[in-house]
Each structure stands twice: as structure tokens, then as C-alpha cells.
Amino acid sequence: MKVDNEVYFALVEERVAAGERVKITLVGTSMRPTLIEGDEIILSREEDLKVGDVVLFRYVGRHLLHRIVAVDGDRFTMRGDNCETHEEALRKDIVAKMVGVKKHHKVKHLAVRWLGHKGRRQLRPWYFVMLAILMWAPLNGLGVEMDKFVLGLRIDHLLHASVFIPCSLFLYDLYRKGNRWLVWLTAVGIGVLTESVQWLLPYRGFDINDMIANFLGVSLGWLIILYLRAGRKQHQCPVRAKHGGCR
After folding, report:
1. How many angstroms separate the CA atoms of 96 and 45, rounded?
2. How far is CA 161 from CA 88, 120, 154, 167, 226, in A?
3. Bridge partners for 77 per DSSP
4. To the nearest 10°, the Cα dihedral for 218, 219, 222, 227?
5. Which sequence spans correspond to the domains of the chain?
6. Domain 5-105: which CATH class?
7. Helix/strand/coil percentages in the chain, nearest 5
């Protein structure tokens, strides 16, 4: 049964004010990677509020579930863990504090943690170090026969394409406020550079097919980004009460 947002959150506020602990189901992406859609949030009326607490509050005619990032007397500043903007509200507008959470889809949580903005930032330098080692280090002595075929494709070409799929993903945040097509161009440039340098290394060899494989891997990664962006909801939009959730 679909319930109007105002009616739903009026009931939530009434129960919280009566001293009950209330469960709601989270909808939205603004609290990733800490919380993801489908998590059950346990809310309670708490007088002791401090920086770091996650709270449900009224903001511009809707209810949001974000983290307190600053407190100035009776004025609180909140921001979602996955947001760049913040909201300000008075103490009277804070409905409840999150006192517990029941996480669903643990595998999804792990993926969100490492593929979300913060995860990408932590993994980015390690990825490019690994990329440099794979492309430029003398790996011929590892005993892997790169000229063998799998599903009609050479192993080394599959390897090149595979390692370049994440390249666009790790570059994406560098152009968050600019022309994001530069992500694809930069990744393609890295693919060309890494293969071109091999022409100068006596223990490696330049192969145009490897460069093409790099390009295909980069392009596949970029298409994945476009797909994810197309399906991504805006961080701040009306909540979907039919799920009993909030942003």
C-alpha cells in the first residue's frame, strides 16, 4: 500500500515523540558507503546530539537522513556521506537519531564500500602502481604463456583489456566538476602511453594489438560509468514513502 510522505513521517514523528524506537527502510544513495538502499534504520529520540551522529530531520518540506558535521548552539549542519552539499537545520527540526542499523545485501555493501567515492580514492594510487608494474616490469620470467588463446583471444590481450577497465573509474573523481569526457580521453592516453613506453624497454615489446586491447578496456569501463550514471538517483529528491524510507 502506498502511503503519502507527509502521513508516513507524521506517524514516524508521533511514535518517536512517544518514546518508541522506530524502524524505517532507507531509500537513496546520499549516505553511501555507510548506509545503502534497503538498510533498516532504527531511530530514537535522543537529546544528546553531537558531530558524527546520523539524524532524521526536516528540511525544506521533506525528511532527510544525514550526518551531523557541525554544531553551533541550536543550529546544526548536516551532510550525506556521499554528498558534496550540506543542509542547515535548527534543533527543533531534528526528529530522531539513528541508534542502530540492520544491513541487507552484505555483498552489495562490500562493493559499495570499495567502488564508492571514498573507496576509489583509497584504491586509486594502488591501482596505478599495479598498472605500472604490469605494463613496464620484466614479467616474461613468470612462466605464464601469454601467447595462448582463451575463447579465441590471446591471454595477453585479455589481460590488457581487463586491467584497463577500472582506469576510467579511478579517474572519474578527478573530473567531478569538469568535462567528464576528459576521463575517457585521459584513460585512453594512459593506455597509449603505457604501451608506447614498452617500445623503449629492452625486456618488453611494443604491440599495436595490446594498445587496441587497452583502448577496448578503457572504453568498456567508460560505458559502465555511463550506465551507472544513467541509473543513479539525485542525492536530494523527495523520498519514496511506499518503501517507508528516507534519503
Report:
1. 5
2. 46, 20, 11, 10, 18
3. 70, 88
4. -140
5. 5-105, 116-231
6. mainly beta
7. 45, 20, 35
Q: Which residue has the higher pLDDT, 86 or 113?
A: 86
Name the pLDDT band for 235 (thresholds 50, 70, 90): very low
Does residue 126 have a pLDDT over 80?
Answer: yes
Helix (DSSP H) and strand (DSSP E) numbers for the chain: 7, 9
d(CA 41, CA 39): 6
Q: How far apart are the first and last CA of the chain?
A: 20
User: Is 151 exposed, middle or buried, given 0-12, 13-18 or 19+ CB atoms closer than 10 A?
Assistant: exposed
The half-sphere exposure of 237 on its side-chain side, counting CA atoms within 13 A, is 8
Judging by beta carbons within 10 Å of its beta carbon (0-12, 13-18, 19+), is residue 187 exposed, middle or buried?
buried
Confidence of residue 105 (pLDDT cuts 50, 70, 90): low
Cell of 210: 595490446
For every residue of 26-50, DSSP letters joined together read --SSTTTTTS-TTPEEEEE--S---
Q: What is the pTM of this model?
A: 0.50
Cα 247 to Cα 5: distance, rounded to the nearest angstrom: 12
Q: Tell me the C-alpha distance between 54 and 96, whole Å.
A: 9
